[in-house]
Amino acid sequence: MSVGDVSKRILLGRKLRSSQLGETLLPKRIALPVFASDALSSVAYAPDEVFIMLAVAGASTYVWSWKIGLAVALVMLTVVASYRQTVHAYPSGGGDYEVATVNLGRNAGVTVASALLVDYVLTVAVSISSASQYAAGAIPPLIGHEATVGVVAVALLTAMNLRGVRESGSFFAVPTYLFMVAILGMCAYGLLRLLAGDLPEAESAHLDIAPQPGWEEPLTQIALMFLLARAFSSGCAALTGVEAISNGVPAFRKPKSRNAATTLLMLGLIAITMMMSVIVLANQMTIRYVDPHELDRLRTTAGGAVPDSYEQHPVISQIAEGLFMDTFPPAFYFVVTVTGVILVLAANTAFNGFPVLGSILAQDGLAPRSLGSRGDRLAYSNGIVFLAALSMLLIWVFDAETTKLIQLYIVGVFVSFNLSQLGMIRHWTRHLRTETDPTARRRMMRSRAINTFGLCMTAVVLVIVLITKFLAGAWIAILAMGFFFLVMRAIGGHYDRVELELAADEQDKVMPTRVHAIVLASKLHKPTLRALAFARATRPNVLEAIYVSVDAKATTRLLEEWDDRHLDIPLKVLHSPYREVVRPIVEYTQEIRRASPRGVVAVYIPEYVVGRWWEQLLHNQTALRLKGRLLFTPGVMVISVPYQLRSSQAAEERRRDEVRVHAGDLRRGRVASRNNNRQIDDE
């Protein structure tokens, strides 16, 4: 086993056979934390963003926060209801992309795919950046190193997902459920104390907020509406991640559609309950929260600015501290810890949705085929690594600042929401034209009405998001979507052209007029003799050996050995005054090709087969360069003639030992049983 194989075994675990794919499917109890962690974790930053936007005009506008929360909850319920129709109608896992492609055309599908790709990358970047901020707040030495913490967290998350969906899902289930228990338990306790009349104030309750210049009261109606629209668009970050379930339906156990729809409903109800509870408690505890870069707007009761040493903690931290620090401090640390952990794990939603979408795009010829290949653990490894690389780049460029990254957020997901809803409306309309069963027609009309209402809601939100966030950074997301759109169209066009170019026709049956075989000879040893014998066995029209002369003594010695062995194959010497080896051979083959345009030049290259990686660095370098040059020469065929050295035989023995059946392999599923083999033979 090589060093690379050992490393992969340690990091990823044992390889899984393709027949074990069914064992990686998820039950609902595991699918909920795998696919819903993003939407659930938004409770940790969506309320914060609402309060930050409202704080622009001072603390008096906080009275609108619960109404904005209700508006976001209404949109979320609508989107959840709409996607429940999608997972039933399109259970293959294509989600919004498949809906848009089938019903609106390829351009619409590529638009949705580009929006989702951008949104998945931002999901990882925003979640990990927010977690880095929580970590820096809890561990002071990390302050100023949030980007480094985020990059390391993405790397660890990547390693977990490369181990496979089922294994990573089991790992993430416990923290996600602990987060639900922590937030719902904290909110329930806080609401009970509110009803009892002894709800404490937050640590920031004694502060006031100075409005930004130009936002002093009284606000005009237009200014107030714009402010509420900005806060609403930021709060809609809570909707991200809902679409991931429609892309991940193939990962569910059967019945896939019903299980996915049930998980969607649970996601919506839990997320809305948590978000509204946090917003209500934050208002009742008189929390004051501003942009972390504008702490100078916070004012003490005396009207002065807060000291430079003041640390503003996130909304959930302030709620937990007010409720538990004086009565039961472990509960406070529990809430803060699981919130930080869930923000890291929230990126797992994107790590499950992005690779599946990438594999579907690869199948449709819109992405590199490598994205459609499963790795050793049956996960789409290339898609996982690609997502990780883009996310790390964003975190590093934006220095893990959530407030900056979140301005890029939401645009992509609402673009996909709108096109998906429009596609579903056309889907139901098309089926209603041919459906005659009254019960089925009523069900389809109900589904179409849900999708129509969903389209109206998401279209309004998209307009608000574009108006309020475009100059704040959303233009970057739109630019990235356009870039992905052009790249995917270019890839699709390339694959289409290659398919047309490779299509077989009658001319492919025409035999070449002659075959001119060339055997490269560096020395007269066993590899060269084997290549000469193999080339002779193919019976070419012309067979000759070629030697590039860079040293007169070596050339003379080779010619003498050639004559002594009485070889009946002519040896042609190509003189190279500048000591080049590759160029003379390439030029010679091109001359033969020009002399006989309908003929073929077959170049036989003897190569050593070695068993150790470092031996490869010591041999075959000239052969590799030569093959790289000859591949671009029309009418030239390159044939490698291997010669196995003893180290390669030792490596083969080691590989045989690896595949040898050991005790317990059948029980562990590493080998197939005889009954299975017999069944395959019968088929």
* Multimerization status: single chain
**Judging by the overall fold, what is the CATH architecture of the largest domain?**
Up-down Bundle
| Total number of beta strands | 7
Please identify the structural class as seen in this structure. alpha/beta
Describe this structure in words.
With 683 residues, the chain is of the alpha/beta class. It folds into two domains: 3-496, Amino acid/polyamine transporter I, CATH 1.20.1740.10; 514-644, Rossmann fold. Helix content is 63%, strand content 6%. It has 25 helices and seven strands. A five-stranded parallel sheet has the order 5-4-3-6-7, with helices on both faces. A two-stranded antiparallel sheet has the order 1-2. β4, α20 (552-564) and β5 (571-575) form a beta-alpha-beta unit. The longest helix is centred in the last third of the chain and has 65 residues, at 438-502.
